[in-house]
Specification:
14 helices, MetI-like fold, mainly alpha
Length: 306
């Protein structure tokens, strides 16, 4: 296990280096001069040039990347060109909001998705199965921003039950969590249904039923546990996506997390902040994937790492 973790951490370091190089080049392909954006349209050229020198934009690209990577491996993500604050400080201030939203959305998606998938798998080709399948199709096809706007119109504007935006009160979390969980619920439901239905057709399940084992025990103890590996994979991928990229949801609901910060930083050409956000998201996704791989051994004792 230790050897496997060491190998994965080495691969994670290589991945982060590749991500850092990619995002470094991509942000510099954005149209517009970030120094001009920060200085303002009415600033003179001397002020623009001063900001350009301050940000290191007057240096050749290889030197810029070398300086950026040197600071990165020391844990210094730079200083935000928009606020003048350290990037790491800004990230730590916004991260709890994104983690809270991702955790609640994932919990909701797992509970509802697995339960609906079990119902559909154990009642195959019934009206309930067709209804659940229709719901998953809608959930996968519906754009996040459109669903968010519909929920705001219904629960905030029409019914006045929930706040439309912000994070000032606990109820503010409900609408963005529902919006963010919708796609994950649909995907987990479909995977649970397909995986569990395949397991329930195995010989050992028929043997358990022939011995008179209760249906609940057959489904949950013998069936669902052996169907969990692909389900856990989907849950891990969805959690990584929620933690790293709830951009549209946070923007629609004005949620002060990393996604909203990323959008604002892109529009203001804040290179250090964009680079820090993407690298942070990449690191979190790598750790989540490692945790999911290790969880496989708990779900299925036949899995061994070498």
């Amino acid at each position: 296990m230790r050897r496997y973790i060491a190998q994965r951490m080495a691969a994670a370091l290589v991945t982060l280096i590749g991500v850092s190089l990619l995002i470094f080049m991509l942000v510099r392909l954005l149209p517009g001069d970030p120094a001009r954006v920060i200085a303002g349209l009415l600033a003179d050229e001397r002020e623009v040039e001063r900001i350009r020198v301050q940000m290191g934009l007057n240096r050749p690209l290889p030197q810029q990347y070398a300086l950026f990577f040197t600071h990165f491996i020391r844990g210094d993500l730079g200083t935000s060109a928009r606020t003048g604050q350290p990037v790491l400080k800004e990230l730590l201030a916004r991260m709890p909001y994104s983690l809270e939203l991702a955790a609640v959305s994932t919990l909701l998606a797992v509970v509802v998705g697995v339960a609906a998938g079990v119902l559909a798998a154990t009642r195959r080709n019934t009206p309930l199965d067709y209804l659940i399948s229709l719901g998953t199709l809608i959930g996968i096809s519906m754009p996040v921003y459109w669903l968010g706007l519909l929920l705001i119109i219904l629960f905030a504007v029409k019914l006045h039950w929930l706040p439309a935006a912000g994070a000032d009160q606990p109820a503010s979390l409900i609408l963005p969590a529902l919006t963010l969980a919708a796609f994950s619920v649909a995907l987990i439901t479909r995977m649970t249904r397909a995986s569990l239905f395949d397991v329930l057709g195995q010989d050992y399940i028929r043997t358990a039923r022939a011995k008179g084992v209760a249906q609940r025990v057959v489904v949950y103890r013998h069936g669902l546990r052996n169907a969990m590996v692909p389900i856990v994979t989907v849950i891990g991928l969805q959690l990584g996506g929620l933690v790293g990229g709830a951009v549209l949801t946070e923007t629609v609901f004005g949620w002060p997390g990393l996604g909203q910060l990323l959008v604002n930083s892109i529009f203001s050409r804040d290179f250090p902040m964009v680079q820090g956000l993407v690298l942070t998201a990449a690191g979190m996704i790598i750790l989540i994937n490692l945790g999911v791989d290790l969880f496989y051994a708990y779900v299925d004792p036949r899995i061994h790492f070498s």
